[in-house]
Amino acid sequence: MRSGSHRARGALAALTAAVLALAGCDAVGGDSAVPTSEGSGSGRPSPSPTPLWDRSPDSVAAVGDSITRGFDACGVLTDCPAVSWATGASAEVNSLAVRLLGRAGAAERSWNYAVTGARMADLPGQMARAAARRPELVAVMTGANDACRATPSQMTPVADFRADFEDALHTLRRSAPRAQVYVASVPNLLRLWSQGRTNPLGKQVWKLGICPSMLADADALDAAATSRRESVRERVEEYNEVLAEVCAEDRRCRFDGGAVYDYRFGPAQLSQWDWFHPSKNGQARLAEIAYRTVTARQSPS
To answer: pLDDT digits over 202-252, tens only?
Structure first.
């Protein structure tokens, strides 16, 4: 598992570095300022170009799935958006919106359009609703449900995942061309299984249908079960490669560099009800990762 993850992270790093080196290319959504000619004769200094990335955006919209809805963080099998890593008001989480806008600002200028159970195919519709608010930043976390299907054969094909993500960004750009986009990597579902399988209650909740491609027959360690879980892990890494590549084509988009995938969720960061979704503590850790990425002087590589 570690070697596959290492190769994926290496590929992401190389790709991101290559794209950042293309200084003259303004892809989807780019709005770089045109420099003033030295020979204008105006006698006034040229204005400073507007930065492509504002590290203190003034409004936040969130799109995605159950994680961004705070599912199972406050009660069993229920959403709890108040503790969402992206827009929640909970002091325990200190969400991305609260960190950027302050508590009063987040209450007025942050919106959560994520839907529990959503897949990448649902993102264009969510993005259209978010774009109507003209947010300065859109926070994206989706993809886990594309891998969490009844069987690995039903996982979203990588090509479809890419096409839907590109469609979502284009949808945003049509209405909000200058909006910035933060994209979180898909979590390491194999690690979540390895942590949660030690909890009897969590395993009972898993039987209700939570991520069966990874969590079904949680205690099975035979070759078939191991192969099934590895195929899910590999697909998640492929999804993260797509997120990095598509985001890199948009100069107002920042991928987290695989930080969420790499984060080692432990018992304190997992829901006490299903031992799979983030707890309030886990939501706070996701908020930290997002804030660090959004406020960094350079995009993660």
So the answer is: 888 899 889 999 999 999 999 999 999 999 999 999 999 999 999 999 999
Q: What is the pLDDT of residues 15-33, one digit of tens each?
A: 333 333 333 333 333 333 3
Listing DSSP states for the chain in one string gives -HHHHHHHHHHHHHHHHHHHT-TT---TT--PPPPPPGGG---SPPPPPPPS--SS-S-EEEEESTTTTTTTSSSTT---GGG-TTT---TTT--HHHHHHHHHHHHHHEEE---TT--GGGHHHHHHHHHTT--SEEEEE--HHHH-SSSGGGSPPHHHHHHHHHHHHHHHHHH-TT-EEEEPPPP-HHHHHHHHTT-HHHHHHHTTTSSHHHHTTTT--SHHHHHHHHHHHHHHHHHHHHHHHHHHTSTTEEE-TTHHHH----GGGB-TTTSSSB-HHHHHHHHHHHHHHHH-SS---
Residues β-bridged to residue 253: 181
Lookup: tokens for 81: 């958006």
Q: Which of 222, 139, 143, 228 is nearest to 185 (CA)?
A: 143
> What is the Cα–Cα distance from 283 to 178, expressed in whole angstroms?
28
Round to whole Å and give the CA distance between 118 and 183.
16
Q: Measure the CA–CA gap between 122 and 165, rounded to whole angstroms.
A: 10
Distant-in-sequence, close-in-space partners of 262: CB < 8 Å, separation ≥ 6:
5, 9, 185, 188
| Residue with tokens 């490669």, as numbered in its chain | 241
